[in-house]
């Protein structure tokens, strides 16, 4: 479980709020990279919150509802495979995180003192920010952001699975599983596949 100690210690410095930012889908072969930014109340916490990767789908869904009901503000950002291929995944991830952060600021927080805690990244935005390695294990607000981003992207994957049948997107969520790679070899890439991630697979298919 990720508690509030880390966030509360930072909050003492001089900030009105702590905002957590995390992403999901960075290592996928298919689909958008998605980021979430959230400000949570820190006078109490939702018990059991931790890195979204450590939670079952059922628990993630329950925690998402709890987070959304308690959040002071939240927002999402996403970048498409086309953008990922054009500027690379690191820059696309940072851009999605920036969009999510700006979405929170636009909810009446531009005049507030906010520190953005970002999971192992930085964003091109002139705001107080701190990159936190393994942030979703250390920071409560980053862990909450990781759950929001994961649930949001998982719902996109369900829609993408209907739009692009045959790849099994609903199951593996676009990651490079054996089933997914075999489907790409058989069907070729869809419009939502990241071409810059597929060089070896496409070389094998064309060979």
TrEMBL record:
Is Manganese among this UniProt entry's keywords? Answer: yes
RNase H type-2 domain residues are: 16-207
GO MF annotations in UniProt: manganese ion binding; RNA binding; RNA-DNA hybrid ribonuclease activity
Q: How is the cofactor bound?
A: Manganese or magnesium. Binds 1 divalent metal ion per monomer in the absence of substrate. May bind a second metal ion after substrate binding.
* Assigned GO CC terms: cytoplasm; ribonuclease H2 complex
Q: Would I find Ribosomal protein among this entry's keywords?
A: no
From the record, give the transmembrane residue ranges. none
Task: Please give the PANTHER family that the UniProt record associates with this protein.
Answer: RIBONUCLEASE H2 SUBUNIT A (PTHR10954), RIBONUCLEASE HII (PTHR10954:SF18)
Give the top-level enzyme category: hydrolase
Question: What EC number(s) would the UniProt record show?
Answer: 3.1.26.4
Q: Which GO terms describe its biological process?
A: DNA replication, removal of RNA primer; mismatch repair
Tell me where in or outside the cell this protein is found. Answer: Cytoplasm
Matching entries from CDD domains are given as: RNase_HII_bacteria_HII_like
Reactions catalysed, semicolon-separated, are: Endonucleolytic cleavage to 5'-phosphomonoester
Give UniProt keywords alphabetically: Cytoplasm, Endonuclease, Hydrolase, Manganese, Metal-binding, Nuclease
Cofactor(s) the protein requires to work: Mn(2+); Mg(2+)
Q: Which organism is it from?
A: Aedoeadaptatus nemausensis
The protein's role, per its UniProt record: Endonuclease that specifically degrades the RNA of RNA-DNA hybrids.
Q: Which Pfam families match?
A: RNase_HII
Q: What is this protein called?
A: Ribonuclease HII
